[in-house]
Model the fold of this input.
Amino acid sequence: MLQILLGSSLGPARTADPALARLVTQGRGSLAFLIGDSECRQRLLGACINWDRVLLAFEQDHAVGYVAFKHDARGPFALRSKPFVREFGRVMGWLRFAGFCLSECREWRYPFLLYGLRVDKSARNQGVGSGLVQACCAHARMSGFREVFLEVPLDNDRARQLYLHNGFRLLRKRWVPFPPVRTMHRPMEAAL
Ligand SMILES: CC(C)(COP(=O)(O)OP(=O)(O)OC[C@H]1O[C@@H](n2cnc3c(N)ncnc32)[C@H](O)[C@@H]1OP(=O)(O)O)[C@@H](O)C(=O)NCCC(=O)NCCS
Done:
């Protein structure tokens, strides 16, 4: 049975599991030029996760997906320069860190942003992605937000369809970041 839980409700012992950090740091592939491949992303961001900004999907106690979100100037990753400097050295570390901060700050325009969504390949096409999107919208509503925004890369047809099937509507195309994205929006009263 699928169970979706807020990361911060799991407690520190469970969120210390490196498998959870690996899952949550897998996204943001388009920022590889700043934060590297998935192993590097885990080293940079794995210890900086704000678990109150992540919903995790479990099947029989095994984490199979997550949705991350941002609101009130707090997203799933705390911005810390130390891991960047450790990974890339002083100059490149600070440059990459500054680039990552810029990319993160760009998104504060949205009151509530669905920041990232990922389902393990082994668990796809079983409704986990939809369950996570719905849980994220319910969380936004419970936290007092009346709308949810997200950005989907133009070439990600699969994700765009999933969001459309879950009540989101297409808004404008954005050329920054690169590759370009399409903004999508769902008012909380949307009937599905
Ligand atoms: C996009 C992504 C999150 C979708 O996750 P998913 O768990 O496969 O999504 P769902 O199972 O909810 O939906 C996929 C399809 O499964 C089918 N499906 C949904 N519920 C189902 C169920 N209970 N039983 C069987 N099939 C089901 C549907 O056909 C659905 O297609 P539809 O949305 O066109 O109706 C996943 O492919 C992924 O992680 N991709 C890589 C990361 C990514 O692109 N993230 C988005 C960034 S913007």
